[in-house]
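Researcher: For the record, we're logging two predictions in this thread. I'll number them. Prediction 1 follows.
Model: Prediction 1, sequence and structure:
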Amino acid sequence: MSGPRRYPWWVAPLAWLAALAIRALGSTWRVEWIGEDPSIPAQRSASPQPCIFAFWHSGLIPLVYTHRGRGAAVLIGSHLDGEIVARVLHHLGFVTARGSSTRGGDRGMLELLGRAAEARSLGLTPDGPRGPAEVLKPGTAFLASRSGLPVVPLASASSADWRVRSWDRMRVPRPFATVRLELGAPLRVPPELDDRALETWSGEIESALHAVTARARNAVGERA
């Protein structure tokens, strides 16, 4: 039996510094919210409604700032890069599941189903952890069908950004940029769907996610 995986010593301080940098950078942004976020009650007397936020991997950075401290569960890859991201998210008030955006059986997806049972919102990058960029994998529809949570397509875009040299060309908004968040209408996937129906719903979710992404990018003039 193998013990817990060991990571290089620098992983922990790097994650702490990255979380600190996101907080500092995010505090300078002008954030615009378009659409209703069901995880934030509209009135003080209302209760937050858990959901599955689906967003492309390239828009992760603004969203971990705007949705920090809510205790949402996010699916993160199991590689070294994923370990760094997971630790950053823990510093920002998220919980994580480790795996990939594939359907059924994957340990990460099963962990997310357990988090859904705790009435947490879930975060899923359906093109992660390794791409191809902005192509939806089937796990999102599967997770929605099995958890009963609605899927909320979510996109972020900024008026000025840096691009990381990665498979997804991750966007990092520059200081004092306008950051626009677009939330689409919740999609309620029927329970216990078979593979053919899941494929159909995957297409619906992907189309909705492309639509909110295009609206967000066009609104702030974000380049492709």
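Researcher: Logged. Prediction 2.
Model: Prediction 2, sequence and structure:
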Amino acid sequence: MKKSLTLLLPMILSLLLPAIAMAAPSSTDSQTAKLLAKAREATAKYHDVSVALADGYVPVGPCVQIPGIGVMGIHYMNFALASDLSVNEFAPEILLYVPYGGGYKLVGAEYFMVAIGTNGTYTGPWFGSELPAGWVWLTAAPTLFGRPMDGPMAPHEPGMPWHYDLHVWLWQGNSEGIFAEFNPTVKC
């Protein structure tokens, strides 16, 4: 019995240690939680969509959803923030709303930064869906909430540049995770 327990103990530990490590809080998790709390505090005023409009956020399309995947919501973009080539956890470039009770409900934020690159003859943002030969990105993925933003990614629609973005579900739980692109718990 003692010999079989000796043989099983390493196997049991190898199965349990990853779960224990994931459950244990780390300083990074603590820092991320603090940043998320401050981001909620900074965006709380935007529960009133008229405040968002007064601060320069404008709707840029219908409610984005993919059946079977989830919802992004209605994007309200602040073009001044989106064009300044910087990101800040406490000033998102885009606010995400969904229709709710005859109005709009703030569910999250999207951080957005234009990707700058060069092909030797042109330096700046690239707006086409296909990159020219020899294209090199000059901007690395910015870091927010202790994680790199997604990208660079191709434009989602005509006129949009290649960019980095990060969705953060500050005001709505998301079964896919707080930084997931789509949220299956909300509806358009």
